[in-house]
Amino acid sequence: MYTLSMFVKHLRNYSCLIPNKASNRLFSLTFVKQVDACVTNWELSKKYLLLNFSDHEEHKYHYIWLRDHCRCSKCYSKTTHSRTQQTHKIPANIYPLHVSLDNGCLSIEWCDNHISTYSESWLFQNHYNKSLEPFLISDIKCRYWGKEIQTNVPESIHFENVCKEKEDLLKLLENVAIYGFAIVKNTPTTLESVRTISNLIGYPRKTFYGDVWLTTNRSEEDMDHADLAYSNVALPCHTDGTYFLDSPGLQMFHCHEHTGTGGETVLVDGIGAAEKLKLTNPNAVEYLAKTWIPATYYEKDRCSKALGPIIKLNPYTKEIYQNK
Questions:
Q1: How far is CA 270 from each of CA 202, 278, 294, rounded to the nearest angstrom?
Q2: How far is CA 266 from the centre of its chain?
Q3: Cα 116 from Cα 223, distance rounded (Å)
Q4: Where are any strands of DSSP class E within 28-123?
Q5: Among 202, 229, 269, 317, which one has the highest count of C-beta atoms within 10 angstroms of its own C-beta?
Q6: Could you tell me which residue ranges the TauD/TfdA-like domain spans (predicted)?
């Protein structure tokens, strides 16, 4: 556990980016590995094309799949990176009349007289007969932490630098990916400043709370929503939005005003805790990853419900990437 007590006196100058209370690491920081491979031979069968590549790999491409993934301008939009043809109009028994290879491109003339062309690199990168894990690589490794992080807090980054310098924005994202949280200092005390950082990273998701909103201490009768965040009650460690079908992955907190005592922000490395549990009790992690648990939010005239596992796993690496 780590409290940001060292920042409380100056909290109005800080904006903290916390992936669902530090429980979600940036799963989207994944890169496609570019691999060059040449087609050395091919073989036509009844339903698929078998390609042999220069690295001694061979892969099947079913004719219906190849025809559906034609990259010509009539079937595919390079501007929107999406298919424009209608799959159901392709004959189920489609087959090639002629196949040729020239200058790194494989051309197929189909029985419906359509001609498709695919680059060798595209074919190799998009084969589908094995796990995608070899194509999902990350240059950033998570660092799990406990109370020791109090003496090694990730470097805070100036708001203006994040807005103007790509290197500082990258450093911000790296901190989130590595530690699960990041701190932006000297942030103007406006909602728009939070929205500015959000738009640099992605876009704020709108819910019934809004896209960016204020929480203030009020009595139960005057609270905007039936949520303890709108009260002066101390909140224990928790994750937010479990009652949404897609729980928040990255949250931003910015204190505009702080009077009195208390109000510390408490961070817990939820992923690190789950990884420790996996080492000591892997059956428990497996159970929490497979068992769907209901979560509900109630307030006047509104009810939000969702089902989902407590722990989410990367389907290819089996790494934990979110706690609910």
A1: 23, 12, 20
A2: 23
A3: 61
A4: 31-32, 39-44, 48-53, 58-62, 76-77, 82-83, 96-102, 105-110, 115-119
A5: 269
A6: 156-315
